[in-house]
Amino acid sequence: MIKTQTLKGFRDFLPIEAKKRQYVISALKQVFESYGFEPLETPALEYEEILLGKYGQEGDKLMYRFEDNGKRKVALRYDQSVPLARVIAQYQSELAMPFKRYQIQNVWRAENTQKGRYREFIQCDIDTVGASSPLADAEIIEIAISAFTKLGFKNFKVLINDRENLQFKTQGIALSQDKNILAVRSIDKLKKIGKESVIKELESNGFTKGEAEEILQITEKAKLTPRLAEVFSILKKLRISDSQYEFSSTLARALDYYTGIIFEIEAEKYTAGSLGGGGRYDNLIGLFADKSMPAVGFAFGFDRLMEAMEELNLFPANLQTTQVLVTIFSPELLEKSIKICEILNNRKINQELYIDPDAKMEKQLKYADKKQIPFAVIIGPDEAKNNEVTVKNLKTREQKTMKLDKLVASVFG
Question: What is the extent of the structural domain holding 374?
Answer without folding.
Answer: 324-412
